[in-house]
Amino acid sequence: MASLGRSSRVSTWAPFAHAAFRILFVAQLVANVGRLMQAAGSAWAIQENDGSPLQVSLIQTATYVPLVALGFVAGTLADRLDRRRLLVACQAWMALSTAALFVATWLGWTDPRVVLALTFATGLGTAIAAPTWAAVQPSLVPRHLVGRAVALNGLTFNVAQAAGPAIAGLVIAALGTQWVFLINAVTLACTVPAVLAWKTPVPPARPAESFGQSLRAGLRSVVVAPQRRILTRYAIFVVPATAVMALTPVLAGERLGLTGGGFGALLALFGAGAALAVTIWPRVESRGEEWGLVASAVVLALALVTAALSTQPVVAGAALLAAGAAFTLGSTCAFVAAQRVVDDAMRARVMAAYTVTSGAAVAAGSAGWGLVARTGLAGAFAIAAVLAVITVAAHFRWPLPARTEEEEGGFTEPQ
Length: 415
Fold this sequence. Notes:
TM_effector; mainly alpha; Growth Hormone, Chain: A; disordered C terminus; single chain; globular
């Protein structure tokens, strides 16, 4: 059995040597980037039409509420059905929903209710796909590369969290808001043949237990240690992080007086921070997920304080750069820690818990930050910074599970 020392010598990029991982990595990246492009484009469409800060922030809520409502159901489906067919259906649905949003904005139907409804429709597909993507990743590479594959999978999601809005900002500045939705629809449609090209392993036999029994078993697995500790730490970290994306349109438009181009530049810097996190990840991994999550929370708190005090675009951009790196690294640390300690038969249901936690934090947090911002943008960022400091303190109450010599590449033996 390989040791952790062997795992530490494996290149971060080694999973890309495997065709199945490459295909689904690209497909997932495109899907996630497109989803976040749409969220940013929808928020700016409302901002351009004199929407309120609350209406702008509700775009994040509409994006993530389906994840909360359907997350556990989706995870149970992914542990019981053919995952390739499930992914194809989700990608096709999201492409159609996004195409409808393009048509609506092209025709000038930019009433916030229309934009929010179509954003919610796209979120339904995302809700089913998210735990399915997480569950298939460890099966795409040899066992000794599973740790790096999951890390890259987590980075894919979090880089998309930053790069999607950044690309949307650039497209808005160059072409117009509606083109964000058309590009997203086309790229989502292209992921369908990519998923079909994946040669899946023979699907496992359907569990003898009923759907309800499978659902309850998944819920039981996440309310006990160690998943409960990891989930708690992740939730505390995500809440202040949501302030960055929820309030950036208001920061750009009201305090800094920026146009669509300036807004896109700020988002591009956030995306650059996430890309920087990819290169930093091997060093963070060598120190452990606990160290990485604490360090990310510290950097996030400093970035939020800087945003609260900034009155110049350059300073605000530096804060977003740091926040992008911190958010990506902290979230990845939580995902990798969770994947290390879950049985493969329960993987989709457990990862659905993280989808639900993320969705709940973003949905509630985004609306909440919009309300807090009514009393002052600086105060909203300052409150978020205080919450990020609480994340650091949570290290003492809910430590992440430590690695053991029995965990090859940081994962338990597949069942």
